[in-house]
Design brief:
Blueprint lengths: L23 E2 L6 E2 L1 H6 L2 H10 L1
Antiparallel strand pairs: 1-2
This protein binds zinc ion.
The site of zinc ion has 7 residues, from helix 2.
Length: about 55
């Protein structure tokens, strides 16, 4: 009887959590966030929030 030398390796390697979805920067107010959010955000309110900080 020959036993195969193959070791049973689980191939469930999960790549390290990468940085997730790419962030996009708004060309108008330079807000950075998910593309969906950037597309849907309000530049003016963002700028106002930035001024406060
Ligand atoms: Zn904006």
């Amino acid at each position: 009887m020959k036993t195969s030398d193959r070791t049973y390796q689980e191939s469930t390697e999960q790549s390290d959590n990468q940085l997730g979805p790419e962030l996009k920067e708004c060309p108008v107010c330079s807000a950075v966030g998910l593309p969906e959010r950037i597309k849907d955000h309000d530049c003016q309110s963002f700028l106002e929030q930035r001024r406060r900080q």
